[in-house]
Structures are given as C-alpha cells and as structure tokens.
Amino acid sequence: MLNMISERIKFQQYSGMIVNNFFWRTYDQQKIDWVEERGGQLHAFEFKWSENKHPKAPIGWSKTYPDASYSVVNPDNCQPWTR
Fold this sequence. Notes:
It is built from three helices and four strands; from the N terminus they run H-E-E-E-H-E-H. It is of the alpha+beta class. A four-stranded mixed sheet has the order 1-2-3-4, with no helix packed on it. About 30% of the residues lie in helices and about 30% in strands. The protein has one domain (about 1-10, about 20-80). A hairpin with a 5-residue loop joins strand 1 and strand 2.
C-alpha cells in the first residue's frame, strides 16, 4: 500500500495536480485509506490486496459526503491510478 501511495504522490506532482491528500476515520472505526480533495470535489480510494473484494463506501462517508466519488484500488487496477 505504501508503494501505491508514494507512486500516486509522484503522479500528482508530475501531472501538476493541485490536491490535498487525507485519510478518513470515524470514532467507530469506519475508514477510507486515501482521500483526495481536488477541484472542490472529494475522491475516496480504498486499497485491497484481493481483486475479488469490492467493498462499498462506509455509511458515515456516504451520508456526510454524498457527492464524493469512491473507488477500490487493487493490484489489478493500480497502474492507471499511479500513472
């Protein structure tokens, strides 16, 4: 996961993206691994090692940020995310 994050940050820099990066966690342990705020929009990314796992966005996230995007990044689809 750390490798994907470092590659994403490099991609953001090389692309000239103006972005704020965060993680998100609630007191009851709902979490999102990576959140990007760019262009006034929130984009959430959950990292999974298995390409068979397709979790839904945490309920707290969906209720608080209904217009935000949510994606699962796994080894099978991480290349376009980091390049």
